[in-house]
């Protein structure tokens, strides 16, 4: 919303010397956010009022050679192409140095002295659009130069000054106004300024003694329209609004149409109360506000055809005239020839207007205001201003009939609040007179009794804005200025430490996984449907978005790995090998769980698998988890290659999975080459297994001995089976340690060379070399018998 | 004999000055002090001297022996250092990458904030991401016909709940009520997490982003105490004190409500294109929890009051590092994510 500072000055005498920047700052801190200031007069340097003294056609052209009296700038010769350039016309001249916008030009150009056909031209007589003033001078026509009223100003007067553009226009952030229906007009903002600067607000003009009628309206539906006033005005001439009004409207961004439309707009920008002027000759029978009936439709002023069934409408006895509070219909306009106006100033239900505006897909200045809940009493202010202005502009216009239909008037909100409450919330001691004076400027009625303030809010603050003691605290604080309070640190009493296992585990696991070469990523909480299909997740058990960001992303993810695969595909062209992980919410079976998943991308599948398994083993130790076992139970994850997968079990509980991503899912994710190994852990389940229970093992009293062995083994022999079998060699065996495996040259296909270290020891003495050799022989016997393995 | 001692001393000195390895020095030790070394032999010969000569000869030989030991050790020490690694090492070569990867920049910032608030005795809370209309709107004091409910930017879920409308949480604030319902006041907690809005994405808009919320509820919390929350957040994020200001702002769940601005970190308040020449940037809403919100949480608003702030971490992290596109945060691009520390 735009606010003209000059307009505000109608209602309040602002402090002398108050800079617009300061006002912007003060209003921003206390009331609403001012996003910027424009100075509309800035564009009009070297542009002034000029009277054409003489105008001679230039032979063989459509041009006119004019002499223009530019007052203190002297007499100026101008070659002009406008058809309406004639002697005696008071127009606008741009002198050298001025900026104008020629028709069709993307940028402004500077006016210079030019010579054409040997004739000097020392300025430009301007059309409205060359100055960006088509809103102020809409009737100037396409070709013509501006025609000013005779009495407007003397030649040489600055254009900006004489059309009121020596102004500052504040741009208000509408979002900061949503809870303040009283601020949607200049008068409301002036009231705030009066409170901020402790000044008096000037009263708005009132009206009285209107000839009351009962035939203009039939009873309205009070759930739509709590109050409806109709005023029949005769003797009106539909011509242009006066220049000052057109200029003000232009400055706040509203184009001038004709006197009636401009007047209703002006009153709305002044008071925040929309109204509508109908051509009385076009109406049949009394008007009312009601719910649209089945089959009723309306062609709106914006040209759209709308079904009005079930929506609030204004109708006469013949048909629907307007979408109430939103926009008029084609039949609601005013013909130029009419002299009789039917003025509707009414209140409409905020909920109904919002619903209607949404259904129609139409937002207007009126609907924006009614949606915020305008009080019924505002009508009086709007009507007073409308009639006063009309009388000034057209003294012959007169009110013939007036009807005021009232369903329910806005009651004043009443709040009782103690001084102690206000002061403890604010950490400051205000006195009752102080607070009372501030609130009175805002329109509150204040009564003090025994440390308590009994307040009656003004009706314009009573439609939902003010209702609680906390609301009063806010009024006092914001007008004192939030920055004028001393900062107090809150007192903190130590309490029992909150017991929370989940977050420390979550953080520790993420930090650990990040520390061993995997990069954390964020993905969306939904999964691509093609990916879900590849993974084999049934969408029946998934949560589904009502309005998904894209049709493929309808379902919330049940696991993290599928999205991580897509992330891996994004990175495959930039890196040869990499690791990714994510910790986040998943929704399997429509319930929320928290998982962590990671993957390694590279080329050597067994190295990748080994490394990722090492990451998981490291988690057990460093995240203080009860160790899991790697089971060969079939996994519950469609992305895993059944030949290379293991599930993580703690007791009977499956807490995670580790495996190679199968070819199908790699392809579905768009992974073109390489190998991917992934894991996924349920952090919620692991929470129960966080433990630091750990037992000390005494150090061996005698040195251990041992040896390395490399065996040639069939691929079908698992390390775990080998390990279990070798255990039977006896109690001198202290540990078997995997060292590495080799496949390839010198090793038959389907077999591998597996190297491991055997550690031996005995509690009461050091083993001899002969004893160690004996163990070695026995191990070789065992593996030869059980696995047909031999030493390499 | 005394000449012979002088000769040995001279020979040893010459030999030591000409050797260039610790191994060669070790050989000299054997040559002079070993079992059959020159000095050892002299000591063995002592017995054959007449008794009156033995004492002085013995002293001279022992002097020579300690001289020899000292000279050999000194030479060995000096050679030991000069021998170094024995292999040329290019000290300008790059370090071997021990471990790429790391935490997401937003997670890093979140943990920094968690640590800062933990030091202020704040609890860290986490709530569910799928929530219900009652928590997200009813308890938040949004009137039944408030446009935010109807607006399309909440990700509503298809009939999932037990008659309650469910959604991906559009803000964290509803979850604060969940925490308050768990037990009686006072409360002092922070609440980080992902939130979701159905927006058209561009360089400044994302569908998923991370908020960080802090809430104090106590018997007396003057609103200026809330400044501690604001200052803790901004100082942690930017690594230095940041000037802030509070101004009137409206949100249904707070009364009074504030908009909190921070001094533009690009121009330091002078006005620039980043702050639209205002010198300030709007960074977070804050305020006193609305009595209806406290009531919905089972907290008596006549007894308890509080202060709340909620900040979008994405935007702060963008300002902190000069990131110009919010979509990078959910883009999972390692070239981007690997840049932060």
Question: If you had to describe this structure to a student in words, what would you say it looks like?
Answer:
- The complex is a heterodimer of chains A (792) and B (341).
- The longest helix of chain A is centred in the C-terminal third of the chain and has 19 residues, at 769-787.
- Chain A is built from 20 helices and 38 strands.
- By secondary structure, chain A is an alpha+beta fold.
- In chain A, strand 29 and strand 30 (593-602) form a beta hairpin.
- The model of chain A has no long low-confidence stretch (mean pLDDT 92).
- In chain A, 43% of the residues are buried.
- Chain A has a 7-stranded mixed β-sheet, sandwiched between helices. A 5-stranded antiparallel β-sheet of chain A has the order 5-4-3-6-11.
- In chain B, the strands form 2 sheets. In chain B, strands 1-4-5-9-8-7-6 form a 7-stranded mixed β-sheet, sandwiched between helices. In chain B, strands 2-3 form a two-stranded antiparallel ribbon.
- In chain B, 40% of the residues lie in helices and 18% in strands.
- In chain B, a hairpin with a 4-residue loop joins strand 6 and strand 7 (254-263).
- Chain B is of the alpha+beta class.
- In chain B, helix 1 packs parallel to helix 4 and helix 2 (22-33) runs antiparallel to helix 4.
- Chains A and B meet through helix 2, helix 7, helix 10, helix 12 and helix 13 of A and helix 5, strand 1, strand 4, strand 5 and strand 6 of B.
């Amino acid at each position: 919303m735009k606010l003209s500072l000059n307009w505000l000055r109608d209602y309040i005498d602002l402090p002398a010397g108050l800079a617009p920047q300061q006002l912007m700052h003060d209003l921003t801190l206390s009331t609403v956010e001012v996003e910027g200031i424009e100075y509309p007069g800035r564009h009009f340097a070297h542009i002034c009022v000029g009277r054409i003294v003489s105008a001679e056609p230039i032979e063989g052209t459509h041009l006119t050679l004019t002499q223009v009296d530019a007052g203190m700038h002297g007499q100026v010769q101008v070659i002009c192409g406008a058809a309406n350039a004639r002697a005696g016309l008071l127009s606008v001249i741009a002198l050298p140095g001025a900026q104008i916008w020629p028709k069709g030009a993307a940028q402004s150009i500077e006016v210079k002295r030019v010579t054409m056909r040997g004739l000097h031209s020392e300025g430009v007589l301007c059309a409205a659009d060359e100055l960006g003033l088509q809103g102020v001078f809409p009737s100037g026509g396409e070709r013509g130069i501006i025609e000013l009223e005779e009495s407007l100003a003397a030649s040489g007067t600055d254009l900006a000054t004489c059309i009121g553009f020596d102004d500052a226009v504040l741009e208000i952030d509408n979002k900061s106004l949503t809870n303040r229906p009283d601020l949607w007009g200049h008068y409301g903002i002036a009231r705030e300024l009066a409170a901020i600067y402790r000044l008096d607000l000037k009263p708005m003009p009132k009206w009285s003694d209107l000839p009351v009628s009962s035939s203009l309206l039939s009873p309205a539906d009070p759930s739509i329209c709590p109050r409806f006033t109709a005023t029949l005005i005769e003797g009106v001439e539909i011509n242009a609004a006066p220049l000052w009004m057109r200029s003000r409207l232009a400055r706040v961004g509203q184009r001038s149409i004709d006197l009636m439309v401009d007047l209703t707009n002006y009153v709305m920008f002044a008071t925040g109360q929309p109204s509508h002027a109908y051509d009385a000759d076009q109406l049949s029978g009394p008007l009312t506000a009601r719910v649209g009936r089945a089959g009723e439709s309306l062609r709106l002023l914006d040209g759209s055809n709308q079904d009005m069934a079930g929506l609030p409408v204004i109708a006469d006895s013949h048909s629907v005239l307007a979408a109430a509070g939103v926009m008029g219909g084609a039949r609601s306009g005013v013909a130029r020839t009419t002299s009789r106006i039917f003025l509707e100033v009414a209140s409409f239900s905020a909920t109904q207007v919002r619903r209607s505006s949404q259904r129609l897909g139409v937002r207007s200045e009126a609907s924006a205001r009614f949606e915020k809940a305008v009080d019924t009493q505002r009508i009086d202010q709007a009507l007073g201003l409308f009639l006063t202005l009309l009388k000034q502009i057209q003294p012959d216009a007169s009110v013939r009939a007036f009807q005021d239909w009232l369903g329910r008037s806005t009651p004043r909100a009443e709040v009782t609040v103690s001084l102690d409450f206000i002061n403890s919330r604010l950490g400051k001691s205000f006195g009752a007179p102080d607070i009372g004076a501030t609130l009175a400027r805002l329109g509150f009625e204040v009564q003090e009794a025994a440390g308590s303030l009994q307040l009656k809010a003004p009706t314009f603050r009573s439609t939902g804005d003010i209702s609680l003691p906390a609301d009063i605290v806010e009024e006092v604080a914001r007008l004192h200025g939030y920055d004028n309070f001393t900062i107090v640190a809150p007192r903190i009493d130590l309490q029992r430490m909150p017991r929370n296992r989940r977050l420390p585990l979550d953080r520790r696991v993420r930090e650990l996984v990040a520390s061993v070469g995997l990069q954390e990523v964020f993905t969306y909480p939904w999964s691509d449907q093609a990916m879900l299909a590849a993974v084999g997740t049934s969408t029946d058990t998934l949560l589904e978005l009502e309005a998904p960001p894209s049709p493929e992303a309808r379902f919330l993810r049940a696991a993290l790995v599928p999205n991580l695969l897509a992330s891996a595909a994004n990175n495959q062209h930039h890196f040869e090998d990499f690791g990714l992980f994510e910790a986040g919410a998943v929704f399997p079976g429509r319930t929320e769980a928290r998982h962590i998943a990671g993957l390694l991308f590279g080329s050597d599948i067994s190295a990748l698998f080994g490394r990722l398994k090492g990451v998981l083993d490291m988690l057990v130790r460093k995240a203080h988890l009860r160790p899991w076992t790697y089971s060969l139970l079939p996994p519950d994850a469609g992305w895993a290659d059944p030949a290379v997968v293991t599930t993580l079990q703690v007791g009977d509980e499956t807490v995670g999975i580790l495996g190679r991503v199968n070819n199908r899912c790699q392809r579905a994710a768009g992974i073109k080459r390489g190998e991917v190994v992934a894991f996924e852990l349920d952090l919620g389940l692991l929470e129960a297994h966080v433990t630091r229970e750990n037992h000390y093992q005494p150090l061996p009293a005698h040195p251990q001995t041992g040896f390395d062995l490399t065996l040639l083994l069939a691929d079908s022999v698992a390390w775990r089976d080998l390990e279990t079998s070798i255990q039977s060699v006896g109690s001198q065996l202290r540990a078997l340690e995997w060292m590495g495996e080799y496949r390839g040259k010198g090793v038959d296909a389907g077999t591998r060379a597996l190297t491991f270290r055997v550690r031996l020891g005995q509690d009461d003495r050091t083993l001899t070399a002969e004893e160690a050799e004996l163990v070695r022989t026995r191990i070789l016997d065992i593996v030869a018998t059980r696995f047909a393995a031999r030493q390499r | 004999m005394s000449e012979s001692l002088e000769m040995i001393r001279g020979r040893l000195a010459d030999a030591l000055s000409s050797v260039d390895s610790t191994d060669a020095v070790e050989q000299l030790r054997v040559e002079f002090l070993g079992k059959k070394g020159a000095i050892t032999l002299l000591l063995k010969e002592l017995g054959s001297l007449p008794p009156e000569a033995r004492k002085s000869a013995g002293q001279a030989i022992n002097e020579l022996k300690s001289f020899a030991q000292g000279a050999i050790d000194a030479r060995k020490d000096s050679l030991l250092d000069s021998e170094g690694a024995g292999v040329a090492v290019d000290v300008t070569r790059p370090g071997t990458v021990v471990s790429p990867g790391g935490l997401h920049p937003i997670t890093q910032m979140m943990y920094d904030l968690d640590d800062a608030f933990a030091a202020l005795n704040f609890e860290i809370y986490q709530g569910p991401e799928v929530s219900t209309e009652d928590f997200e709107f009813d308890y938040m004091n949004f009137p039944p016909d408030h446009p935010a409910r109807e607006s399309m930017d909440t990700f509503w879920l298809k009939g999932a709940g037990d008659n309650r409308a469910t959604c991906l949480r559009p803000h964290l604030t509803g979850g604060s009520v969940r925490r308050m319902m768990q037990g009686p006041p006072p409360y002092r907690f922070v609440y980080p997490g992902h939130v979701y809005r159905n927006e058209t994405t561009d360089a400044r808009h994302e569908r998923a982003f991370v908020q960080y919320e802090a809430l104090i509820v106590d018997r007396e919390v003057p609103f200026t105490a809330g400044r501690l929350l604001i200052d803790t957040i901004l100082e942690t994020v930017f690594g230095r004190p940041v000037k802030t200001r509070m101004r009137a702002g409206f949100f249904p769940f707070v009364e009074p409500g504030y908009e909190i601005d921070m001094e533009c970190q690009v121009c330091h308040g002078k006005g620039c294109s980043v702050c639209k020449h205002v010198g300030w940037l709007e960074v977070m809403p804050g305020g006193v929890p609305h009595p209806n919100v406290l009531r919905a949480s089972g907290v008596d608003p006549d007894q308890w009051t509080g202060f709340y702030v909620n900040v979008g971490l994405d935007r702060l992290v963008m300002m902190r590092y000069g990131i110009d596109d919010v979509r990078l945060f959910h883009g999972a691009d390692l070239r981007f994510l690997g840049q932060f520390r």
